[in-house]
Amino acid sequence: MERGAYGLAGLPALALLVACSACSAGGDGTDGTAMAGGAHAASVVFSPLDRSTNVPTDQPVVVSVHGGRLTGVRVDGGGKQGLPGVLSSDGTRWRSTVTARPGTAYTVTAVSVDPAGKQSRSTSTFTTVKGQAAFDVKTVTPNRDDTGLTVGVGMPIMVTFDKPIADRVAVERNLIVRSTKPVEGAWHWFDDTHVDFRPQQYWPAHTRVRLEARLAGVRGGPGLYGKRDVKLDFRIGRAQITRGSTDEHVLVVRRDGRRIRTMPMSAGQGGQWKYYTTSGIHLAMSREPVTVMTSPGIGPGQAGYYQLTVYNTVRISNSGEYVHSAPWSVGSQGNSNVSHGCVNVSPENAAWFIKNTLIGDPIIITGSPRKLEPTNGWGHWQENWHQWQRWSSLKAGPTLTF
To answer: For 362, phi and psi rounded to 5 degrees?
Structure first.
């Protein structure tokens, strides 16, 4: 949906049709009065009305003409940007397509022509409501530095803001997702500063995706408006999905439906809840050549404390779970679970796995009584589609194409 194109802020449609001709200012003296031969100049109507103040930033500018057609509309204000728009196919109506800036004076100039070929220029001015504060996009994931711009088929789009958002509807409708292969998807608010997008099913392989966060001037709450627009382009790689069973003690990697590697594994030994590997749909969150692991909830000098340097690790949750090299448990890999919750594989398999994994690749573990929570790392796929949409302000819809 185009930003700014979702309502007239309560203005009845009839008001646009019956607004008095005095709302049109004819710059060349043609203000709708009779012309020679009985012809009449084209009558131009503006919304917002001329000299309006405290106009909501999300109210679109609409210019209509009666008894003629528009040949050009220009909205100046807000620096060099102004407000672009689209003209109807019959040339009788123009509508802005972006959100205005808060506390900004705009001048609308319309050029029209009547049936006799007489050209007129009309102008109108308005001022938008003043903002008290601005919000900004704090982080967007994926990104070049943390994940790379080619990611796995399970990768969500994750956006965080630097201030709490009260008007989630206004913000969400201005978070536009485009893809070369359209998919059904929805945003999901985890809290007032964090909203994520995922498709109903995994992304199609080799799809190009674009996020257009058209937030400049968008209302985020009382007196709070977006500071700037943000755009992100990234690409979905091949479809690689890894499945592992804590009962069968094996990881199977399939790429584009074809099995490409089988790796014996050892999972969490259990006993204590924290020592079970979580079951569920994990995503590869990071690839770390070296990771220092310490015992959860146990300090130095206490029974069970450890601090261990581990190599070739792929993180799969926020509760300390990785797929990693474990030369000390090679004898158990493929037959028993002896780890503190991680997925142990041999040094050779770990080196292969970190090299062949993209951030966002699904890694699905089954067999454990401990389930991965949707908020544990990137457990987005743990919620079914109905559950995911419960936390969306606008529900699901297809991505736009480009």
So the answer is: -70, 135
Rounded distance, CA 364 to CA 282, Å?
Answer: 6
**Minimal CA–CA distance to 280: which of 384, 390, 142?**
384
| pLDDT at 398 exceeding the cut of 50 | yes
Average pLDDT over residues 367-389: 97
Among residues 109, 41, 44, the alpha carbon closest in space to that of 74 is found at 109
Catalytic-residue membership of 324: yes
Q: What are phi and psi of 15, to 5 degrees?
A: -60, -30
Catalytic hit among 188, 249, 342, 380:
342
Pick from 255, 251, 351, 364: nearest CA to 316: 364
Cα–Cα–Cα angle for 319, 321, 324, rounded to 5 degrees: 160
Q: Measured between alpha carbons, how far is 152 from 361 in angstroms, rounded to an integer?
A: 4
Per-residue pLDDT tens for 169-226? 999 999 999 999 999 999 999 999 999 999 999 999 999 999 999 999 999 999 999 9
Residue 395 has pLDDT above 60, yes or no: yes
Tell how far CA 272 is from the center of its chain. Answer: 38
Q: What pTM did the predictor assign?
A: 0.85
- Catalytic residue check, 194: no
Per-residue model confidence (pLDDT) at position 297: 78
- CA distances for 70 relative to 31, 42, 88, 92, angstroms: 15, 9, 9, 6
Instruction: Spot the catalytic one: 188, 282, 324, 340.
Output: 324
Percent of the chain with pLDDT strictly greater than 70: 89
For 144, 184, 212, 362, the CA distances from 234, given in Å and listed in that order, are: 9, 18, 12, 18
pLDDT of residue 6: 27
User: How far is Cα 335 from Cα 321, in angstroms, rounded to an integer?
Assistant: 20
By the 10 Å C-beta count (0-12 exposed, 13-18 middle, 19+ buried), 306 is classed as exposed
Phi, psi angles (nearest 5°) of residue 400: -80, 155
